[in-house]
Design brief:
Blueprint: E1 8-13, H1 19-33, E2 37-42, E3 44-45, H2 62-67, H3 70-75, E4 81-82, E5 94-102, E6 105-106, H4 108-114, H5 117-123, E7 127-134, H6 139-151, E8 155-163, H7 168-181, E9 187-188, E10 191-192, H8 202-217
Amino acid sequence: MADSTPPSVLIVYYTYSQQTLSVAESMASRLRERGCKVQLAKIEFTDPRYAPRFSQFPLRHAYRDIFGMVLPQFRGVTGQIRIPDEVGAGPYDLVCIASPTWWLHPCMPIRSFLESEAGRKLISGKPCAAVAVAHRYWRDDLRILKKLIVKQGGDYMDGSHFTAGGGPVDSMLALLSYLSTGVTKERYLGFRIPPATLQPSYVDQSRAFADRLADRLAPPKIW
């Protein structure tokens, strides 16, 4: 007789433009279809040095706010965050960390969580997965997420990434346009740009990734 207790999954995420939330919700929906009990936990960014610029959407000063995060991101700076109650409500059979990509790296709120004592307690000794959500360049984000998970004692299982469309230049223009106006446009500064949001394929991709995770969580059948 197989264990009938559903696997429990926690998806920890941060989002500003709601793209990472879209991925997290799509994964959660599929995991629930696969019989998992899923909780979502949003990290809140409260650091007075940086958080005020992200207090509204779109950004008040897009260029200054975006480029002002370059050095803190590359230096791996951490900041003050608020950790939701769901983080301490485990235990969980799987923890998934989902982060938007800020200047090639995991965003500061997620890095801050992963380097915190609460993050260590959550993931130490637990199967973990990672999700990088990027406008274009995701590899360093996913690599660093894996490194931080392993450093805190997590058992890294798998990772996936989700991106918007476009090339190096037009995707950046699309991002600047979206974060400064809050809407998707066809042109910016005279250039034709791709949609600034995730490619529609993210839905199928996120469900497929959730399936991979669910397959690994499925208890062995005992006859």
